[in-house]
Amino acid sequence: MSNSFQLTDVQCRFGDFVALELAELTIEAGENVALIGPSGSGKTTLLRLLNTTLRQDAGSFTVFGKNPDGLSPKELRAVRSMIATIPQHLGLVPNLSAVQNVILGRGGHRGVFRSIRDILFPGMEDKVAIHELLDRVGIEETLFSRVSALSGGQKQRVAIARALFQEPEALLADEPVSSVDPARARDTIRLFRELSDELGFTLCVSLHDVALAKEYFPRLIGLRAGKIVFDGAPEDLEGDVLKDLYQLSDEEMMRDA
Fold this sequence. Notes:
Number of domains: 2
CATH class of the largest domain: Alpha Beta
Helix content: 25-40%
CATH superfamily of the largest domain: P-loop containing nucleotide triphosphate hydrolases
Strand order of the largest sheet: 5-6-7-3-8-9
């Protein structure tokens, strides 16, 4: 099995602050991984590094076997088009409809001018494909609804459909269930896993809910103060290991990365 992501001796800094310091991390193609750890532990920084919107200050990083630093702008866009990201606040455009927001998922494949045309005048083929995706995530009735009028759960599903429309090799989601109730959170994480198993993409999700992560992910990566302190099976995250992951010093409680 090939690697989706490979990091060696990676360090990410913001000024003098070291946000991430990883000796070794490999995420294989098709793996399902949950990132856990307290706020400020480096989960968002790691996801930004994985989707190439942040560059490391030291060490080596490859995505799908390629070093982003050595790619031309065109090659980098091609790599980024293979990685769908659902940011914590979803990144939807409120004044556009669901179908228009989903079309944005293929912006990396289509280029600027075609993307603008498709957003303003969605073609029938796109509308049919997007209706099928919205049906798959349970909100097909929202196709032409303005996103600003949708509920939080519906917006969440639009963001998932947008990521799927991108046809990614890897899907990264940053705290995708932080603003929904526990039942909706469980349904959403279950949907992520079903889609990953069905379509074969690599899935990496950051979660605050450790119980949910242990229930649905075969591999957990625990971050604390920018370092990996746990990497293993959910059944091994118990007792003192779990306590050590979340018992913070005063300095760590001030972190936000």
